[in-house]
Protein backbone atom coordinates (compact mmCIF):
# COMPACT_ATOMS: atom_id res chain seq x y z
CA UNK A 1 0.00 0.00 0.00
CA UNK A 2 1.25 3.48 -0.89
CA UNK A 3 0.50 6.57 1.14
CA UNK A 4 0.85 10.25 0.28
CA UNK A 5 0.57 11.95 3.65
CA UNK A 6 -2.53 10.42 5.23
CA UNK A 7 -4.06 9.46 1.88
CA UNK A 8 -4.11 5.79 0.94
CA UNK A 9 -3.30 6.18 -2.72
CA UNK A 10 -3.81 2.68 -4.14
CA UNK A 11 -7.25 2.30 -2.60
CA UNK A 12 -8.52 5.30 -4.56
CA UNK A 13 -7.30 4.29 -8.02
CA UNK A 14 -9.97 2.85 -10.28
CA UNK A 15 -7.71 1.86 -13.17
CA UNK A 16 -6.07 -1.56 -12.82
CA UNK A 17 -3.18 -0.47 -15.05
CA UNK A 18 -2.57 2.60 -12.91
CA UNK A 19 -2.58 0.41 -9.77
CA UNK A 20 -0.07 -1.89 -11.45
CA UNK A 21 2.17 1.04 -12.30
CA UNK A 22 1.98 2.31 -8.73
CA UNK A 23 2.72 -1.17 -7.34
CA UNK A 24 5.84 -1.63 -9.47
CA UNK A 25 7.11 1.82 -8.49
CA UNK A 26 6.25 1.12 -4.87
CA UNK A 27 8.25 -2.09 -4.77
CA UNK A 28 11.29 -0.11 -5.88
CA UNK A 29 10.54 2.83 -3.65
CA UNK A 30 13.08 5.60 -4.23
CA UNK A 31 14.65 3.87 -7.24
CA UNK A 32 14.27 4.80 -10.87
CA UNK A 33 12.33 2.26 -12.93
CA UNK A 34 12.77 2.21 -16.70
CA UNK A 35 9.84 2.37 -19.07
CA UNK A 36 10.81 -1.06 -20.41
CA UNK A 37 10.42 -2.62 -16.96
CA UNK A 38 7.12 -0.82 -16.41
CA UNK A 39 5.80 -1.82 -19.81
CA UNK A 40 6.67 -5.47 -19.19
CA UNK A 41 4.72 -5.46 -15.92
CA UNK A 42 1.80 -3.57 -17.47
CA UNK A 43 1.37 -5.38 -20.77
CA UNK A 44 3.66 -8.42 -20.76
CA UNK A 45 4.20 -9.79 -24.27
CA UNK A 46 1.40 -7.63 -25.72
CA UNK A 47 2.68 -4.06 -25.32
CA UNK A 48 0.99 -1.14 -27.11
CA UNK A 49 2.60 0.34 -30.21
CA UNK A 50 3.83 3.30 -28.14
CA UNK A 51 4.67 2.01 -24.65
CA UNK A 52 6.45 5.23 -23.65
CA UNK A 53 3.29 7.21 -24.36
CA UNK A 54 1.14 4.58 -22.63
CA UNK A 55 3.17 4.77 -19.44
CA UNK A 56 3.18 8.58 -19.60
CA UNK A 57 -0.62 8.58 -19.83
CA UNK A 58 -0.94 6.45 -16.71
CA UNK A 59 1.53 8.68 -14.86
CA UNK A 60 -0.50 11.74 -15.86
CA UNK A 61 -3.64 10.16 -14.40
CA UNK A 62 -1.87 9.48 -11.12
CA UNK A 63 -0.57 13.04 -10.98
CA UNK A 64 -4.00 14.44 -11.78
CA UNK A 65 -5.52 12.53 -8.90
CA UNK A 66 -2.81 12.89 -6.25
CA UNK A 67 -0.54 15.75 -7.24
CA UNK A 68 2.46 16.24 -9.48
CA UNK A 69 4.86 15.09 -6.78
CA UNK A 70 3.39 11.57 -6.46
CA UNK A 71 5.48 10.28 -9.39
CA UNK A 72 8.78 11.83 -10.46
CA UNK A 73 10.36 11.50 -13.90
CA UNK A 74 9.47 11.40 -17.56
CA UNK A 75 10.46 9.73 -20.79
CA UNK A 76 12.82 6.85 -20.01
CA UNK A 77 12.04 6.27 -16.32
CA UNK A 78 10.03 7.10 -13.21
CA UNK A 79 10.09 6.75 -9.43
CA UNK A 80 7.76 7.54 -6.57
CA UNK A 81 8.00 11.00 -5.11
CA UNK A 82 9.81 11.54 -1.82
CA UNK A 83 6.55 12.24 0.04
CA UNK A 84 5.04 8.86 -0.86
CA UNK A 85 5.40 6.11 1.74
CA UNK A 86 5.10 2.38 1.04
CA UNK A 87 3.92 0.03 3.77
CA UNK A 88 6.32 -2.81 3.04
CA UNK A 89 9.35 -0.51 3.05
CA UNK A 90 8.26 1.15 6.28
CA UNK A 91 7.61 -2.27 7.82
CA UNK A 92 11.07 -3.49 6.86
CA UNK A 93 12.66 -0.44 8.51
CA UNK A 94 10.59 -0.97 11.66
CA UNK A 95 11.57 -4.66 11.81
CA UNK A 96 15.25 -3.82 11.53
CA UNK A 97 14.75 -1.34 14.36
CA UNK A 98 12.92 -3.95 16.44
CA UNK A 99 15.56 -6.63 15.89
CA UNK A 100 18.36 -4.24 16.84
CA UNK A 101 16.45 -3.26 19.98
CA UNK A 102 16.13 -6.90 21.04
CA UNK A 103 19.81 -7.54 20.46
CA UNK A 104 20.60 -4.44 22.53
CA UNK A 105 18.49 -5.70 25.43
CA UNK A 106 15.65 -3.22 24.88
CA UNK A 107 12.64 -5.49 24.32
CA UNK A 108 10.04 -2.82 25.09
CA UNK A 109 11.30 -0.72 22.18
CA UNK A 110 11.43 -3.83 20.03
CA UNK A 111 7.85 -4.66 20.86
CA UNK A 112 6.58 -1.22 19.88
CA UNK A 113 8.39 -1.34 16.54
CA UNK A 114 7.29 -4.92 15.80
CA UNK A 115 3.66 -4.17 16.58
CA UNK A 116 3.79 -1.16 14.26
CA UNK A 117 5.25 -3.33 11.52
CA UNK A 118 2.50 -5.91 12.00
CA UNK A 119 -0.05 -3.12 11.75
CA UNK A 120 1.33 -2.27 8.31
CA UNK A 121 1.70 -5.73 6.78
CA UNK A 122 0.24 -8.32 9.14
CA UNK A 123 -3.29 -8.45 7.78
CA UNK A 124 -2.66 -7.38 4.21
CA UNK A 125 -3.12 -9.37 1.03
CA UNK A 126 -0.57 -8.47 -1.59
CA UNK A 127 -1.34 -7.71 -5.24
CA UNK A 128 -4.56 -9.67 -5.46
CA UNK A 129 -5.13 -8.02 -8.85
CA UNK A 130 -2.04 -9.79 -10.17
CA UNK A 131 -2.20 -13.57 -9.73
CA UNK A 132 0.54 -14.03 -12.34
CA UNK A 133 3.78 -12.25 -13.11
CA UNK A 134 7.25 -12.80 -11.64
CA UNK A 135 7.42 -9.25 -10.28
CA UNK A 136 4.21 -9.86 -8.33
CA UNK A 137 5.45 -13.24 -7.07
CA UNK A 138 8.65 -11.61 -5.82
CA UNK A 139 6.57 -9.01 -4.01
CA UNK A 140 4.45 -11.70 -2.35
CA UNK A 141 7.55 -13.60 -1.22
CA UNK A 142 9.04 -10.43 0.21
CA UNK A 143 5.80 -9.59 2.01
CA UNK A 144 5.54 -13.12 3.44
CA UNK A 145 9.09 -12.92 4.79
CA UNK A 146 8.39 -9.53 6.37
CA UNK A 147 5.29 -10.91 8.08
CA UNK A 148 7.28 -13.91 9.31
CA UNK A 149 9.98 -11.63 10.75
CA UNK A 150 7.31 -9.48 12.37
CA UNK A 151 5.71 -12.49 14.07
CA UNK A 152 9.10 -13.64 15.36
CA UNK A 153 10.17 -10.33 16.82
CA UNK A 154 6.69 -9.57 18.20
CA UNK A 155 6.57 -12.94 19.97
CA UNK A 156 10.13 -12.66 21.28
CA UNK A 157 9.67 -9.10 22.52
CA UNK A 158 6.40 -10.03 24.24
CA UNK A 159 8.17 -12.88 26.00
CA UNK A 160 11.00 -10.61 27.14
CA UNK A 161 8.63 -7.92 28.41
CA UNK A 162 6.77 -10.37 30.64
CA UNK A 163 3.81 -11.14 28.41
CA UNK A 164 4.09 -14.88 27.65
CA UNK A 165 0.41 -15.14 26.70
CA UNK A 166 0.93 -12.67 23.87
CA UNK A 167 4.12 -14.53 22.91
CA UNK A 168 2.21 -17.81 22.75
CA UNK A 169 -0.55 -16.35 20.62
CA UNK A 170 1.82 -14.80 18.08
CA UNK A 171 4.07 -17.87 17.93
CA UNK A 172 1.06 -20.08 17.21
CA UNK A 173 0.05 -17.78 14.35
CA UNK A 174 3.53 -18.10 12.86
CA UNK A 175 3.46 -21.89 13.23
CA UNK A 176 0.03 -22.13 11.64
CA UNK A 177 1.44 -20.30 8.62
CA UNK A 178 4.59 -22.46 8.53
CA UNK A 179 4.58 -25.72 10.54
CA UNK A 180 8.38 -25.95 10.08
CA UNK A 181 9.06 -22.55 11.67
CA UNK A 182 11.54 -23.69 14.30
CA UNK A 183 12.25 -20.22 15.68
CA UNK A 184 8.55 -19.75 16.42
CA UNK A 185 8.44 -23.13 18.15
CA UNK A 186 11.30 -22.09 20.44
CA UNK A 187 9.43 -18.97 21.53
CA UNK A 188 6.28 -21.05 22.03
CA UNK A 189 8.17 -23.54 24.20
CA UNK A 190 9.67 -20.75 26.32
CA UNK A 191 6.28 -19.07 26.68
CA UNK A 192 4.63 -22.32 27.83
CA UNK A 193 7.40 -22.78 30.39
CA UNK A 194 7.09 -19.16 31.53
CA UNK A 195 3.42 -19.63 32.45
CA UNK A 196 4.18 -22.82 34.37
CA UNK A 197 3.13 -25.30 31.68
CA UNK A 198 6.34 -27.21 30.83
CA UNK A 199 4.35 -30.24 29.67
CA UNK A 200 2.88 -28.14 26.86
CA UNK A 201 6.40 -26.97 25.95
CA UNK A 202 7.51 -30.60 25.66
CA UNK A 203 4.48 -31.40 23.51
CA UNK A 204 5.34 -28.46 21.25
CA UNK A 205 8.86 -29.82 20.85
CA UNK A 206 7.53 -33.25 19.99
CA UNK A 207 5.20 -31.70 17.45
CA UNK A 208 8.09 -29.84 15.83
CA UNK A 209 10.30 -32.93 15.78
CA UNK A 210 7.57 -34.94 14.08
CA UNK A 211 7.05 -32.23 11.45
CA UNK A 212 10.77 -31.97 10.70
CA UNK A 213 11.17 -35.73 10.52
CA UNK A 214 8.17 -36.23 8.26
CA UNK A 215 8.81 -33.31 5.92
CA UNK A 216 12.61 -32.98 5.82
CA UNK A 217 14.04 -36.08 7.48
CA UNK A 218 16.01 -34.01 10.00
CA UNK A 219 16.10 -33.40 13.76
CA UNK A 220 15.50 -30.04 15.47
CA UNK A 221 18.48 -27.69 15.64
CA UNK A 222 20.91 -27.93 18.60
CA UNK A 223 19.54 -24.80 20.29
CA UNK A 224 16.02 -26.24 20.12
CA UNK A 225 17.19 -29.53 21.60
CA UNK A 226 19.05 -27.65 24.35
CA UNK A 227 15.90 -25.70 25.18
CA UNK A 228 13.92 -28.94 25.33
CA UNK A 229 16.44 -30.52 27.72
CA UNK A 230 16.47 -27.42 29.93
CA UNK A 231 12.69 -27.52 30.25
CA UNK A 232 12.78 -31.25 30.98
CA UNK A 233 15.38 -30.76 33.73
CA UNK A 234 14.08 -27.64 35.41
CA UNK A 235 10.62 -26.95 34.05
CA UNK A 236 11.85 -23.63 32.67
CA UNK A 237 14.22 -22.13 30.14
CA UNK A 238 15.98 -19.85 32.62
CA UNK A 239 19.33 -21.61 32.38
CA UNK A 240 19.54 -20.75 28.70
CA UNK A 241 20.64 -17.15 28.20
CA UNK A 242 20.45 -16.82 24.45
CA UNK A 243 20.76 -13.65 22.38
CA UNK A 244 17.93 -12.76 20.05
CA UNK A 245 17.92 -14.85 16.89
CA UNK A 246 19.42 -17.95 18.48
Explain what you see:
The chain is 63% helix and 7% strand. The protein contains ten helices and six strands, in the order ββαβααβββααααααα. Helix 4 runs antiparallel to helix 5 (107-121). The radius of gyration is 22 Å and the shape is elongated. The mean pLDDT is 86.
Strand order across the biggest sheet? 2-1-6
Low-confidence stretches: none
pLDDT averaged over residues: 86
The H-and-E topology, N to C, reads as EEHEHHEEEHHHHHHH
The name of the CATH topology of the largest domain is Arc Repressor Mutant, subunit A
Give short descriptive properties of this protein.
single chain; 246 residues; mainly alpha; Arc Repressor Mutant, subunit A; Serine Threonine Protein Phosphatase 5, Tetratricopeptide repeat; three-stranded antiparallel beta sheet; elongated
